[in-house]
Amino acid sequence: MPEALNVIMRWLHISSVITLIGGVLYGRLVFFPGLRTVAPEARTALDETASAAFRPLVYLAVGCITVSGLYNIFSNPGHSPRYHILLGIKLLLVMHVFAIVLLLVRPGNPRRQRMMGLAGVSGLIIVALSAYLRRIF
Fold it and tell me: Which domain holds residue 56?
């Protein structure tokens, strides 16, 4: 059972990150450029509707990433100081992304497009750090 739990938690972690970062990158690179073709009066309504639809996914993904991430950290102790330094940097970036995505799905946010860009860049850096940490594990 412990091996099955490890696989489930890893899957939960990766699929939640895909949902969160993929949604942010889609919004910044596809959705907002597409909004430029919509009439200004409909643009705000469409932006708010999309944000409201993404909000439950953001909450679920943040919760799943937190639970599965804590499980992964505590179930794999005993790493080098370099690993812990990079893990600390990764976790600071994770908190940055969490703060941004929780703010960007709030109703009436006029800076949503810019915030998605920042979260997307930080998210891609997190993925790169994760790949490296997995390699030195």
Answer: 2-136
